[in-house]
Amino acid sequence: MPQTRIVIADDESLIRMNLRETLVGLGYLVVGEAGDGVSVINLARELRPDVVVMDIKMPKLDGIQAAKVLTEEKIAPVLLLTAHSDKELVERARDAGVVGYLSKPFRDSDLMPALEIARARFEEFLTLEQQVGDLKETLETRKIIERAKGMLMDSQGLKESEAFRKIQQLSMNTRKSMREVASALLLANQMEQQK
């Protein structure tokens, strides 16, 4: 099984060094380090790590703003490690899509479960997003086919089953999807109406 690839970000190099040693000791592979929010975004875009572990308080762009970008671009899950745990920061982190939040000081034994859960939640998020996209695509396809069936029923006096079968047959004959055939029929009908 390949090692989990991690990018770490903290504005203090000593903390990054300690975190790297801890992560390597736990069997993770640290593929990059950054000292500010802008750099961690650029590094993560380039390296595509499995997880980004970062502090909140960083120059240029704080960890929560960086996490929001990484989440919106679906680059990697973010685990925040921070000494700050006031309610406002936690809410900002939640709204930014952060999937893990550990307060410093933390025990090394807390890190591995937090990382693994962050990865799992991010994978679930990506899977759900894909399923939603697929469902939207299916629904849109059905709407187009229904409109094309209705148009064929009106223009050619076909029954619903006959109109569906005609679209299906055209799809097989042209080796195009039923959605493509239905869209073409609708477009041809629209052009005919405009003459």
Q: In DSSP terms, counting alpha (H) and pi (I) runs of 4 or more, how many helices?
A: 7
- Look at the helices and sheets and give the structural class: alpha/beta
Instruction: Output the CATH class name of the largest domain.
Output: Alpha Beta
Gyration radius, rounded: 26 Å
Mean pLDDT: 88
Tell me what the CATH architecture of the largest domain is: 3-Layer(aba) Sandwich
| Topology pattern, helix = H, strand = E | EHEHEHEHEHHH
Tally of distinct domains: 2
Overall, the morphology is elongated
Major beta-sheet overview? 5 strands, parallel
Cα distance spanning the termini: 64 Å
Strand content: 5-15%
Low-confidence stretches at least 5 residues in length (pLDDT < 50)? none
CATH topology of the largest domain: Rossmann fold
Strand order of the largest sheet: 2-1-3-4-5
Number of strands: 5
Helical percentage = 55-70%
Looking at this structure, what is the CATH superfamily of the largest domain? Answer: Response regulator
